[in-house]
Amino acid sequence: MPVPWEALIPFALVTTMFGVTGTAFSITKRAQNDGKPPRYGIDTWDEMMMDRDKRLTGSARGQSSNPVAPESFATNSAWYTEKSQ
Fold it and tell me: Is residue 16 part of a domain?
């Protein structure tokens, strides 16, 4: 049975376009996560730590090794409406 060579051109185009879109999607996801792979299975603890990291460094994926928090960390809490006792 002969190979229908004219069918290889659309097959190559479809395969290439799936590869291009998958690669572009991966690049955009990594760009949004500061060059790190995306997180999966995030629970409440992870969300709290990501919020803390965002308040400390300005990025949800950024971490700081500085033992002293910046001055703005004391006033940019999510609990700004709660009265202190």
Answer: yes
